[in-house]
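User: Small ask, check this?
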Amino acid sequence: MADLLARAGVGRLRLVDDDSVCPENLHRQVLYDQADAAAGTPKVEAAARRLSQINSDVHCEPVATRFDADNAEELAREVDVIVDGTDNFATRFVINDLAVRDGVPWVFAGAVGGEAQTMTIAPPRTPCLRCIFDSPPPTCVDPNCRTGGIIAPAVVAVAAIEAAEAMKILAGRSQDVSPTLTKFDLWGNLIQRIDLAEACREVDCPCCKRHEFEFLGGH
């Protein structure tokens, strides 16, 4: 989605990742090439270099670290929207706590196999991630692209929607963000939209209703 945001002329992108490019990334991560994989280039450095070639007016800030409870506040400082490209639910729950606590909109997305899902959280107007998922699944059952594989079209499809949602927020059109959790099954040719407001109306969410931010250490 960073590629789409850079092409749209977003003024600043803070890129956060602690991983390096490997050959297994190339079929679905369009910012990298074989030279990056051969060199084991940090993903944020390779991405920043590529994005500057796409649009030199966009300021890219690469941060080679893992987003967690200890650095979340600093990494999200002065950002207008958080766009999720993580590969695990534990990190997403940290993001959700931070977003709700500080009122920062964020766009959640995930993909594995031929399936993908995305939702936009705009505190305090919309339900949050914990309204839908009370807690992260255990690591052993949390599906991810390393254990379940993934096809590029699933990534591209959800990234396009994710970027569009971020662009609405940045353009001052938060009222137009999607009110649903959208799920795709590209192998099964299925698209499912779940009305979050209706589904979460009676949920006593510990995060967005009780303001308990346990994944940030309770702060």
Summary: Residues 87 and 117 are 13 Å apart (CA to CA). The chain has a mean pLDDT of 92.
